Amino acid sequence: MKKYMKYRNVMKGLMAAVAVTLLGVPQNAAAQDDVRTVDGASYYLPKTELRFSLLVEKATFTPGDLAPYASRYLRRDDVSMEPSTQYRIVGMQLSQKAVPDTTKFFTAKIDGKHSVRTLSRDENGVLLAVNAEPREAKARKPFVAAPKPAPVNPRDYMTQEILSAANKVKMAELCVQEIYDIRENKSLLNKGQADFMPKDGEQLRLMIDNLNAQENALLQLFEGTTDRDTTEVEVAFVPTREVEKQLLFRFSKYFGLTDADDLSGKPYYIKVEDLHSSPTLNGSLADPKKDKDNIGICVNLPGKIRATVFSADRALGAFELYAPQFGTTESLSGEMFSKKFTSHLVLNPVTGSIESLETEPLK
User: SS3 of 110, please?
Assistant: First the structure.
């Protein structure tokens, strides 16, 4: 009797392995199924995770070498003497990701009485297609920062006299004199009174641009420089119900994105509204009271929501989208996968709703 039971368990394991192969399910997805039998395959329907991609600009200020003399020679009292770093949010985008909804776990019948031949799932066990090639989710393009121009070296625009200055006080005097000379030359060019006037408008523009570059480079010695870098950070959130005001993340202008319990960061909230709108699906749904042949093929009818991200004094953005956790789940009629018919079902990889459904009679 023990030998028989051992043989039976071994054969059952072999048959289950064959069923996994026939279903065309990735190994890593199959390993995550809670239930798998010879005549069935388990899967999840998805819920939507919101991915907020924040573009964060980091501005690093470096004081100029001659900053202490800006007030005396340029009458500038607003020049900072201390280095600093500040952050700010310059943009936000929303993308969606499907995650398994553990409350929507089903087992599809795979047996000789039905025409279910393949059942495709993603790496997390979320149903993608039945008897059809799944549709890949559109990948979001990551943010790529534009190339930055090479930094300007003020020494490239200094005269020999400035470079030979004995101390910073003298260098500041000579730099300011050069700045005023540049401004005077620009004024003369604009008035048409310069000793060497350009022949046409294009030459005039080039000369003005060159003088502006010289002036800005020398002003950096007093005003300092600000280096800006933009990076992308992501905040994930799974909405489950309507909320008026729920903490989404905290952001500090001195530290950037901070932990949720770090009070140095300014709070940003999310508001979730259920718009009570869902797509319709007629003729393919099973009536639980009449359909005795429920084969376990279910789909989502997602509900439409509006998600708004805001702080006490700023609105970052509002987005409308479909989220299955705000809709309903329906079973497809078993007749669509009977011995008389075969159906090809492709689901939306994010919401689990029907993308395409084709039914044809079996020959």
Answer: coil
Please give the sequence-ordered ranges of beta strands (E in DSSP) within the chain, or none if there are none.
36-37, 40-62, 84-109, 119-121, 127-130, 225-237, 243-252, 256-258, 266-274, 298-310, 315-331, 341-347, 354-361
pLDDT at site 28: 36
Angle formed at CA 9 by CA 41 and CA 6, multiple of 5 degrees: 175
Three-class SS of 127-191: EEEECCCCCCCCCCCCCCCCCCCCCCCHHHHCCHHHHCCCCHHHHHHHHHHHHHHHHHHHHHHHH
pLDDT at 138: 82
Contact, 128 vs 353, CB < 8 A? no
Q: What residues contact 311, with CB distance under 8 A and at least 6 apart?
A: 266, 267, 268, 269
Q: pLDDT of 44-95, one tens digit each?
A: 999 999 999 999 999 999 999 999 999 999 999 999 999 999 999 999 999 9
Q: From residue 142, how far is each of 193, 272, 348 by CA, in Å?
A: 52, 26, 22
Residue type, 121: R
Evaluate the CA torsion angle 17, 22, 23, 24 in order and state its sign: positive
In eight-state DSSP terms, residue 283 is S
Per-residue burial over 255-272, b if 16 or more Cβ lie within 10 Å, else e, is ebbbeeeeeebeebbbbb
Q: Are 126 and 350 in contact (CB under 8 A)?
A: no
* Residue with the larger pLDDT of the pair 127 and 10: 127
Sign of CA dihedral 24, 28, 29, 30: positive
Which residues does residue 341 pair with via DSSP β-bridges, in sequence order? 361
Phi-psi category of residue 359: left, alpha or beta, with phi > 0 → left and psi -120 to 50 → alpha:
beta
pLDDT band, very low/low/confident/very high, at 140 (cuts 50, 70, 90) = confident
Q: What is the reported pTM?
A: 0.78
The predicted-structure confidence for 222-270, as pLDDT tens digits, reads as follows: 999 999 999 999 999 999 999 999 999 999 999 999 999 999 999 999 9
